[in-house]
Amino acid sequence: MLRSELVAARDALLKRAALHATDYLEAILSRRVSPHPSAVAGLPALRTPLPAGPTDPETVLRLLADVGSPATVANGGGRYFGFVNGGCLPAAMAAGWLVTAWDQNAAFWVQSPTAVALEETALDWVRELLGLPDGTGGAVVTGATMANLSALAAARHSLLDRAGWDVEANGLFGAPEIQVVVGDEVHPSLLKSLGILGLGRNRVVRVPVDSQGRMRADALPPLDNRTILCLQAGNVNTGAFDPAADICRHAHTAGAWIHVDGAFGLWASVSPEYQHLTQGFELADSWATDAHKWPNIGYDCGIALVRNPEALRFAMSVRAPYLAATEQHREPNDFSPELSRRARGVELWAGLRSLGRAGMAAIVDRTCGHARRFADGLRAAGFEILNEVVLNQVLVSFGKPERTLQIIAHLQSEGVCWCGSTVWQGRTAMRISVSSWATTQDDVDRSLAAMLRAAN
Ligand SMILES: *Cc1c(COP(=O)(O)O)cnc(C)c1O
Questions:
Q1: Domain assignment of residue 31, yes or no
Q2: What pLDDT does residue 188 have?
Q3: CATH number for the domain including 170?
Q4: Residue 92: which of 140, 41, 58, 39 has the closest Cα?
Q5: Ligand 1 atom 12: residue of nearest CA
Q6: In this structure, which residue's CA is closest to atom 1 in ligand 1?
């Protein structure tokens, strides 16, 4: 093909992809939320042997649209209440298309001044939205798991450096011991991060929690300057926050490093109505959060923040003669666990640019209001709400565990909405997490009606 023919074919392909995308987004508003079993049964059509030769890109795209799209879960549609999954804001989605066209490697400034500038600005905005101290720096990573890992690597560096041990150079064998303290309701992915860092998933002191899953400040073990204390802002089941204000001053006096897992909860600090929940967390040394949860930025977008970014730099930076780092600019490579990386800070910038502070606060307020509406409706129908609905999470029991699980299965297969199950302090429950910017009151009322139909 001539160059001009290649360009024309590519343009046509991209326009077709945009049409498939907008058709898809329209379809999921009325489509069932979970994919129909027949759509899932069609997936083997994509699982062919590796083709020996090329396929026309139009055919490739059509396969995705015809076979892939129907078997997706419609979590962008407003009636998906599983895990803590949002949708994707239009500005972030559109920016994502452009990022793909730009095809930047966001490791170093010389590779993409645009990506580095946007990422740096977005990190500043996040710091400001979360009410964290000036000078805090960090990295845009793939999710809260990697954000926890990155921040805890900075903590590990800092504590061992203080003890005269260079952990990056010498590893952990023979190093002074570090104590890690977590609440008993710690997210399992934080334990995974500790495991990857050589600090151990089980080699932790677990602090007892109260009925909402909050760490009990009166039950803390002795803390010292070889302690990493992990607090949680937003429990995935109840939405509850550890009492940071009661804990942080004491922990700092003892010399401990305080890390906060605030994957979704930290964003409550943007809302005048809910920011009291996040009080005290700004006193910590490091924070992990997700922009693909409450801010609805789209996957994958986690953020690690460290009060003293130099600690993160020591943990992450690599240098080689061919890696052209500059001194004048912030080099993402110095702070992130990856080297080559997608310019995911661009979507973060675009989403936050489109929302502004008020837009982000409105998502928090609206989704928390929807959660209360679910709780009120279910309670009025005689069902037990197991948590204090302080945020966007609701736990409901429909009676015996088998019955609750049956109702959840029915709801999922009927497809009006989607909720998952959990076990909260020994009791089986349905989890409702309202995290999407796209959820309307009509979505809530239709979903509530579906829940009550399934339950009766
Ligand atoms: C979601 C979540 C995580 C894990 O985040 P990923 O982005 O899925 O890696 C960790 N901690 C808490 C509290 C969460 O809600």
A1: no
A2: 98
A3: 3.40.640.10
A4: 140
A5: 263
A6: 263
